[in-house]
Amino acid sequence: MAFTSENALFNKYELGKLLGCGAFAKVYHARDLRDGQSVAIKVINKKRLSINLMGNIKREISIMNRLNHLHIVKLYEVLATKTKIYFVMEFVKGGELFAKVAKGRFSEDLSRIYFQQLISALSYCHSRGVYHRDLKLENLLLDENGDLKVTDFGLCAVTGQIHPDGLLHTLCGTPAYVAPEILAKKGYNGAKIDVWSSGVILFVITAGYLPFNDPNLMNMYRKIYKGEFRCPKWMSSDLIRFLSRVLDTNPMTRITINEIKSDPWFKKGYKEIKYSPIDDNIKEEDKKLLDLNAFDIISFSSGLDLLGLFDDSHSAVRDVERLTVTERPDKVIEKVEDVVKGEKKNIVRLRRKKEFGVELEGQNGKFIIGLEFYRLGDNLAVVEAKRISGNAIGFTELWKKKIRPVILPQKEQQVPGN
């Protein structure tokens, strides 16, 4: 694999081959300059995202950062510039399961192994209140050992999104894998639709074709809604019986994850992956996931200029910077005051604004700079610097050349990618 330093991102990653391309993102193979490790970097173009899709991305980041399972792709970090978001993830060498099954259906034993790994990942997610909602072959990858990895949590949901009726209501999923209750538009259980989609996956890898398929989309939906599918003759009677329980159109009687684990066909050779109960605790953080804001991503990128990443107001003020610093707001303000005191002939005046805010007026009113400080943790804050009025030269000379280097040491500064 050829890497070039010219494509280095944030002085940390060298980009390599393009692995895939979608409507909003491209995925590249890359190398971590610090240890030479291969990673995958998903590059998302912010300009192509609606507010709703940005919300999906924030939720995906927050959830993936908390999931740690052998059969789920790991998210290492998130970086950002004014126009792009970069997911730095585990590089899964074997590619999509879709590409492998396209060469020919799997044996029942191999299909069982992949299905067991998928159910292990789903059981882990569901126990933490996370529902994938877009399971399909394209979102299942294989590592160098041939083990399955679930990816793409962009449409996932958490328990905090459940309505008072106990159901989810957002329409989502891929047509051939979508559960009948989603088509009914009456609300659905997130765990139940993941089970349905997993059943479609099991059918495809064992049969070599989709259980519900038709060139006419409405005809396909009609088959899904009625549960009309035929198993090929080479499937064992145990697997046919099992699939009838997984692809049950009635979500109330459809088999559950725990029941799947107890089924004779599934149990053959299955070994449960044990995880510590304190490994993650997403359930207690569901409410936080519903109120995600810029800080959920800012915390991944200390010292990074995040201008415009989540700002959809398109302010006319062009000179704005947001940085994260590893200090409390009051300590940062003290540093700003020290810089102002050091200016010759007192040409800059400092006025306190609100609890953690100041205004800097320079050169007898020729420019005004506003600084806001937002506390994220005991020793983590976001600093927003904005040129409120006046010339840009004053903003550059005072903020960029004098204050910023003091509150953000050189070792913490990063150069954003394009």
From TrEMBL:
SMART domains recorded: S_TKc (SM00220)
Residues annotated for ATP binding in this entry: 42
EC class name: transferase
Chemical reaction(s) catalysed: L-seryl-[protein] + ATP = O-phospho-L-seryl-[protein] + ADP + H(+); L-threonyl-[protein] + ATP = O-phospho-L-threonyl-[protein] + ADP + H(+)
Key word Transferase present: yes
Protein's organism: Olea europaea subsp. europaea
Stored PANTHER family: CALCIUM/CALMODULIN-DEPENDENT PROTEIN KINASE KINASE-RELATED, CBL-INTERACTING SERINE_THREONINE-PROTEIN KINASE 11
Superkingdom of the organism of origin: Eukaryota
Domain NAF: 287-311
EC number in record: 2.7.11.1
Entry keyword set: ATP-binding, Kinase, Manganese, Nucleotide-binding, Serine/threonine-protein kinase, Transferase
GO CC terms, sorted: nucleus
Protein name: non-specific serine/threonine protein kinase
Reported cofactor(s): Mn(2+)
